[in-house]
Amino acid sequence: MMTKHEQILQYIDNLPVGSKISVRQIAKDLDVSEGTAYRAIKEAESQGYVSTIERVGTVRIEKKQKENIERLTFAEVVNIVDGHVLGGREGLHKTLNKFVIGAMQLDAMMRYVDAGNLLIVGNRTQAHKLSLQQGAAVLITGGFDTSDEVKQLADKLALPIISSSYDTFSVASLINRAIYDQLIKKEIVMVEDVLKPIEETPMLHTYDTVDVWHQYTQDHHDTRFPVVDDQMRLVGIVTSKDIIGHDSWVTMDKVMTKNPITTSPRVSVASSAHLMVWEGIELLPVVDNHKRLVGVLSRQDVLKALQYMQKQPQMGETFPTQIMSRFREEKIADTLVYQGDITPQMTNHLGTVASGVMTTVMVESACNLLRLHRRGDMVPENIVVYFFKPVQIESRIEIKPQLLDISRRFGKVEVAVYHQDQLVCKALVTAQIVER
């Protein structure tokens, strides 16, 4: 039997895309407290099929798939530009294909506006109207309003018309940044992308016997299985070592390992791989917020996902890749040396290199050296900084990682940083190696 929280989530999931959601209305319709309704709505928002917009309310939106995660909904645009909706609220759930800046004559502008676009323009009412007629939403910069005729047209076509107090350049920069962040997210493979779904997961119940486990090992060619109760909540995991010495009629609740290590669908595969290697486990159950089993992640699934990630084109740069792009790598025998200048972006308010930047450089150079010796993905475990001297802006530094120890699963590197042949920083980096 579903809990009230689960009933509310199912109710929200079944609402038509674009529907407005009210805490008070859900509490009344489903006969639950407003606190319970509020918590369920927040979870639905974290799962990506509800969006809350200031001065508009909460709206049911279409949950994005991995392939279109780089697209933004108009509801997200409202939040990004701190705007308010003048009309067309029913279309807030729609995604925009691209945005067009209206900084030209009206006739020329309309040649670039297509259905599904977002036109960013000032207080040019005729441009607002023509854009809506061509199937594009409108974002008005400078905090300006528009005519009642345009607002009515937006409501009729379910195309949002949004007003923001920011100027055109700031709005375009904010939206570009949001799309760029989405591209980085697209590259990150999550557990939910690669797990074996519940429909394909062999599992045992607490009342199943050791005899059933033996039958499962023959049918599924495996010895590790999650154990669930009648509500599909994970209560344990059973392996061959749990079964040894027990009679065939003994039930799983008597032999299973209780409170197993788990992960959630919205955790990165890299983080889960680190957990599996660190804890020495081959099968990681995946559960939702209510401890219900949603699938399992095996070591083979993790390896395949990491191989897939290596084949993907880099579409969005993270801070580590941006920082390391400023350094030239030189391979000398079986080691690496990096040289580069301290740019203004790398410094703190005093004009010396920021500690976070220096730490990133040392960790990245250490992991790159380990990759030179061992094929695999490196997950930093620990970094101990022995000392750190200030290095001024525009100074040239040299980073020299030295391999101390490497095994199949772990590597240890000492990193020394020099400025004008003087040692300015030294650290010990330990990383976990996830073989491909």
TrEMBL record:
SUPFAM superfamilies: CBS-domain pair (SSF54631), HprK N-terminal domain-like (SSF75138), Thioesterase/thiol ester dehydrase-isomerase (SSF54637), Winged helix' DNA-binding domain (SSF46785). Residues 190-254, 256-312 form the CBS domain. CDD domains: CBS_pair_DRTGG_assoc, hot_dog. This is CBS domain-containing protein. The keyword Nucleus does not apply. Signal peptide: none annotated. Keywords: CBS domain. PANTHER family: CBS DOMAIN-CONTAINING PROTEIN, CBS DOMAIN-CONTAINING PROTEIN CBSX3, MITOCHONDRIAL. InterPro entries: CBS_dom (IPR000644), CBS_dom_sf (IPR046342), Diverse_CBS-Domain (IPR051257), DRTGG (IPR010766), HotDog_dom_sf (IPR029069), Ser_kin/Pase_Hpr-like_N_sf (IPR028979), WH-like_DNA-bd_sf (IPR036388), WH_DNA-bd_sf (IPR036390). Pfam families: CBS, DRTGG. The lineage of its organism: Bacteria, Bacillati, Bacillota, Bacilli, Bacillales.
